[in-house]
């Protein structure tokens, strides 16, 4: 069933462009074609950049009031068309309709927060006279936009991650070129529709569809692009960083997040929270709980409670109101996960639940006795698989949690405030959630990782700072 979305067009510098060369978009649940988008090529990316040079002047000259009005109108458009946006997300990606509704509401909120933060884009006065010989100087700094931002986004949150690029980008006064994941471009085009509807002047925004191999390098290597804002996998992030040259980089990458369960924790709460943190969006979430470290005294009790919760996760049709978990983004991804789990089992791991694949669906899966050097421990699974480990104490859990090349967020369940404080200081991550799983985020908090999980922070206020620069103004007061 085709969804009516701007009729197979993409948005280049505010104009809807049709092309005969189209890429089909599939529903991963049944491989039905649900729409198509233009296969953008190098010349389309070059055209988007050329017009964005005019767009950045227009964007910079929009008053804060005008930016706020456009952002608020775009947010209202998304809210008014919630069901349509949600169906698009659910059909082209792997989210269930309920998960898709929640993402749509968050995307509208992200854009609304961007409008509010535009108001707070201020500088401060500087005491130049703190240095000898500067008694007669006074001044301030203000923030100005970086210029043209090329934003490259992944498939797993196809709307809200676009909102996290366009909202702060426009709030800070930039032109933005979005290259969405080829698997999920339709939600990005719906976001473009919201901004065109809100009266964003042409040339400020492009949403260029097409394969990374055809348009990626043009966007990344262009000297006219001032910033690459990338969200996606670590390996892709590294490739982009190697090619980008002298321009600002924001890298929101993956992880294999830990959760720690101590013996004094509320074990029911921990089991519920880690289950939802591990299997939301079929585990295709940068914050997914992947490794659970449980203090040995409560390991068996926690394991029983956790497995009971996992059994409740209802896998099925994405558009059904009662489904908790849908398929992976494609069958190839489900096969990769199956292979990684089979390798872990061959090296000594045991399957406590799940472990079978049907097409793009992979059952919610729990493993234990997994060797420390298994791929499922060291790498990001990005699927519905979680590993249980027995640890001696908090120090042991912290050491194991840190012993990977990722560091996005971590969770710890405990009633002991000292343990919580120690974990918050010693875990090498961008966020520590106490009595919650790693999968907690609001769109207004600083969000990002360390090590292979990224560079910089999103979360609207923080993204706006990354997407703008300080300019100093210094006055020398002359004698009359
Ligand atoms: P991906 O394969 O890295 O792709 C992400 C985007 O990069 C897509 O638009 C893709 O385009 C493009 N791309 C791929 N290779 C490229 C290249 N050589 N040059 C330029 N662009 C290139 O990631 P994914 O599988 O879509 O998403 C999953 C990953 O994103 C996971 O690692 C997840 O943890 C991470 N993620 C991180 C966050 C965060 O905020 N930290 C949030 C969500 C997801 P094509 O589709 O055309 O290949």
UniProtKB/TrEMBL annotation:
What family does this belong to?
Belongs to the aldehyde dehydrogenase family.
Q: Where is the Aldehyde dehydrogenase domain?
A: 16-472
Read off the Gene3D superfamilies from this record: Aldehyde Dehydrogenase, Chain A, domain 1 (3.40.605.10), Aldehyde Dehydrogenase, Chain A, domain 2 (3.40.309.10)
Provenance organism: Salibacterium salarium
Highest taxon, organism lineage: Bacteria
InterPro entries found in the cross-reference section: Ald_DH/histidinol_DH, Ald_DH_C, Ald_DH_N, Aldehyde_DH_dom, ALDH-related_metabolic_enz
Q: What is this protein called?
A: Aldehyde dehydrogenase family protein
The family database entries (Pfam families) matched by this protein are listed as: Aldedh (PF00171)
Q: Which UniProt keywords apply?
A: Oxidoreductase
Query: Any idea which GO molecular function terms this record carries?
Result: lactaldehyde dehydrogenase (NAD+) activity
């Amino acid at each position: 069933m085709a969804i009516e979305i701007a009729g197979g067009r993409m948005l280049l510098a505010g104009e809807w462009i049709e092309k005969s060369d189209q890429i089909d978009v599939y529903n991963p649940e049944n491989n039905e074609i649900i729409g198509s988008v233009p296969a953008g090529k190098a010349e389309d990316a070059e055209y988007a950049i050329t017009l964005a040079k005019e767009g950045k002047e227009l964007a910079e000259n929009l008053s804060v009031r005008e930016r706020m009005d456009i952002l608020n109108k775009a947010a209202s458009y998304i809210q008014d068309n919630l069901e349509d946006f949600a169906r698009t997300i659910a059909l082209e990606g792997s989210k269930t309709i309920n998960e898709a509704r929640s993402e749509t509401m968050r995307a509208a909120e992200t854009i609304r927060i961007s409008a509010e933060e535009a108001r707070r884009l201020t500088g401060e006065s500087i005491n130049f006279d703190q240095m000898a010989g500067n008694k007669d100087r006074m001044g301030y700094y203000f923030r100005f936009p970086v210029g043209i931002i090329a934003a490259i986004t992944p498939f797993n949150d196809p709307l809200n991650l676009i909102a996290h690029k366009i909202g702060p980008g426009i709030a800070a006064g930039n032109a933005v070129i979005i290259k969405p994941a080829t698997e999920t471009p339709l939600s990005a085009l719906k976001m473009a529709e919201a901004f065109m509807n809100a009266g964003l002047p042409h040339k400020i925004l492009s949403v260029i569809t097409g394969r990374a191999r055809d348009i990626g390098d043009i966007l990344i290597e262009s000297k006219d692009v001032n910033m690459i804002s990338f969200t996606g996998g670590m390996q892709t992030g590294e490739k982009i960083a190697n090619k980008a040259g002298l321009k600002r980089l924001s890298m929101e990458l993956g992880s294999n997040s830990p959760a720690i369960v101590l013996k004094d924790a509320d074990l029911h709460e921990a089991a519920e929270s880690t289950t939802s943190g591990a299997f939301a969006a079929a585990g295709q979430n940068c914050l997914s709980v992947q490794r659970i470290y449980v203090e040995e005294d409560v390991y068996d009790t926690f394991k029983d409670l956790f497995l009971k919760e996992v059994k409740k996760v209802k896998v099925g049709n994405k558009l059904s109101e009662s489904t908790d978990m849908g398929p992976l983004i494609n069958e190839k991804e489900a096969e990769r996960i199956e292979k990684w789990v089979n390798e872990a089992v061959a090296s000594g791991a045991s399957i406590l639940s799940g472990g079978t694949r049907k097409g793009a669906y992979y059952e919610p899966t729990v493993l234990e006795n997994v060797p420390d050097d298994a791929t499922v421990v060291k790498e990001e699974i990005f699927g519905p698989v979680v590993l249980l480990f027995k640890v001696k104490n908090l120090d042991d859990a912290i050491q194991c949690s840190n012993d990977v090349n990722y560091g996005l967020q971590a969770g710890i369940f405990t009633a002991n405030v000292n343990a919580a404080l120690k974990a918050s200081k010693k875990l090498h991550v961008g966020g520590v959630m106490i009595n919650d799983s790693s999968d907690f985020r609001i769109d207004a908090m600083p969000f990002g990782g360390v090590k292979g999980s990224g560079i910089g922070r999103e979360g609207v206020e923080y993204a706006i700072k990354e997407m703008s620069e300080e300019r100093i103004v210094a006055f020398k007061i002359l004698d009359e």
